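The step that takes the researchers longest sounds almost clerical: writing a folded protein down as plain text. The outcome of that step, for a single protein, is printed below.
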Amino acid sequence: MVEHPPVFTLGKSGKREHVLVSEEQLQNLGIEFYHINRGGDITYHGLQQVVGYPILDLDKFKTDLGWYLRSLEEVIIQVLAEYGLKGDRSAGETGVWLSPEDPFMARKICAMGIKCSRWITMHGFALNVNTDLSHFEYIVPCGIQGKAVTSLEKELGRKCKFCTKFL
C-alpha cells in the first residue's frame, strides 16, 4: 500500500488524447505523467489515495484474470461497506462504483489496472480516500466519458483517517 505524489499513468491500451492538458500545463500543475505496462487507460494517483500493488502467484490460487479482478473489486466493496457505502460493479467496466445502475448518479471510487506475467500479478487498485478530485478534471478517467469520480471524503462528508491505518 502506498500514497503517490500527483501523477497520471497511461496503461498499454490507453489513449494519449485522454490527457486533456498539455505537457507544459502538467508541469505547472505539478503532476507527472508516465506510460506504464499495466492494462487499462489513464488514471490519477495522488495524495490521500490508497494505492495497492498486490503481488500474488495466481498459480497458487486460480489462473483466471477475470476472477482475480472480481476478487480485488470484492475486497474494495467490503471495505466500503465498513464505511456504510454500497460499492458495486459496473457492467463491462473494471473497478468499484457507487450507484453504477443509474447513469446520472454513477461515480467511480476505485480504479483498477493490472499486469500479469507467468501468473504473477503486478499493479492493482487506487481507492480515492481524501483525494483531490479536481485532478481528475484534466483526464478522461479510465477512458470512460460522462461518469463522475468520487472519494470516501466526498461521500461521507468528512475527512477519513483510512490512509493513516496503512501508511
